[in-house]
Amino acid sequence: MRIERDVDLRDWHTFRLPARAAELVVIERDADWAAWRARWQAVPLPEVIVGEGSNVLFVADFPGRVVRIATRGWQVVAETATERVIEAAAGEAWAPFVAALVARGWGGLENLAAIPGTVGAAPVQNIGAYGLEVGERIAAVTIWHRVSGETRTVAASELAFGYRTSWFKTDAARDWVIRSVRFALPKHAALRPHYPDLQRWLTAQGIELADLPPDGAVRAVHDAVVAVRAAKLPDPKVTGNAGSFFLNPILTADEWQRLRACAPEVPGFPLADGRWKVPAAWLIEQAGLKGAQLGGVAVDTRHALVLVNLGNGTGADLLRLMRRVQDTVAARFGVMLQPEPTLIGWDGTKVSI
C-alpha cells in the first residue's frame, strides 16, 4: 500500500482544482485492503474514496485521507450460450475496459464507451449514456466493509439503481467499498444506435449496421459513441472538467406542464412512471449561460452541461459559477438544477447545495 502525505490533489481529480489532503493512500493489491483497515484504525482520519476522480471535486483543502482504489484486472468467470459474465476489479479504468471487450467483439457496454472513471465508480453513479445505464448490465457487486473487514457479494436487484443513483449513495452504504463488479453481458443483445448523434455519425461514415457481422456492428456503435463524445465534450486530460456537471432534472407531470407553459419549445422525454426528463444543457443554453465565466471556471462553449477549469480555477470560482447557473435557470424556468459530481468541502463531506 502506497502512502503519501501533504498531497496536492490536482493530479487526483479531473477538474484539477487546487486543494491539498493530509494523506493519500493507494490500494493496488489484495493485501492492501487489510493494510488500509489497519491504517484507518491506527490513524483515524476522515476519508474520501476516489477512483480516477472524475466525479469527485475537491473545492477546498481536506485535512483527511484520500483513498485511491487502483486495483486492476478482469476475467470471464462464467459463460452460457446466451450470456458472458465478466468480473472486473474496482480500480480498472472504465473506458479501456469497455474498449477491450469491444475489441473481442463482445457487446453490451459499447454505448458507455469513453466515459472517464473506473469500474468501481460506475455502479455508484449508475453511469449512463446513449440509451443505456450500467445497472442494466450488472449482475452483482463485491463489497468490503472498511470498519469490520467483512466482504460480501450483493446482487444487482438489491442495489436500488436509478437515474444517476444507487444504494451506494445512501447512509447504509457509508462504510462499504466496492472491490469488484460482475457484468452479465448478453451475447445477442439488440444494439442501441438510435440517438440522432450516433445515427448521423454512422451515416456520415457510410456504415449500415445491418450489413455488418455482429462483432463488427458492436465495434461500429462503440466507435460512433467515442467520436460523438470527443466532438461534444472536452478531454479532461487537456481541460480540467468532470463531464456532465448538472443532472438532467426529472419533473412530475404538473411540473412538466408548468415548464411547457413558459417554454413551449422545451424538449422532454417521458418516463415509464409518468414523469419527464428534461435536458439540463438546453435549459442552461437557453438561459444564455453557454460560455459564461467566473474567475478561472467557465461553462464550456461546446456543451453547456460541462463546466471547465480554464487553468487557474479555484473551488470558490466553481461554487460561484454553479450557483449562478442554478439561480439563472431557476429564475427563467422555475427548475432548480442539481450537480452530478460530489463536491467535497474541507471536512470531507459533500458541500451543501
From TrEMBL:
Cofactors named for this entry: FAD
Transmembrane segments: none
InterPro entries, per the entry: FAD-bd_PCMH, FAD-bd_PCMH-like_sf, FAD-bd_PCMH_sub1, FAD-bd_PCMH_sub2, MurB, MurB_C, MurB_C_sf, Oxid_FAD_bind_N
Segments forming domain FAD-binding PCMH-type: 5-188
Catalytic activity: UDP-N-acetyl-alpha-D-muramate + NADP(+) = UDP-N-acetyl-3-O-(1-carboxyvinyl)-alpha-D-glucosamine + NADPH + H(+)
Keyword tags: Cell cycle, Cell division, Cell shape, Cell wall biogenesis/degradation, Cytoplasm, FAD, Flavoprotein, NADP, Oxidoreductase, Peptidoglycan synthesis
Cellular component, GO annotation: cytosol
Function summary: Cell wall formation.
HAMAP family reported in the protein's UniProt record: MurB
Name of this protein: UDP-N-acetylenolpyruvoylglucosamine reductase
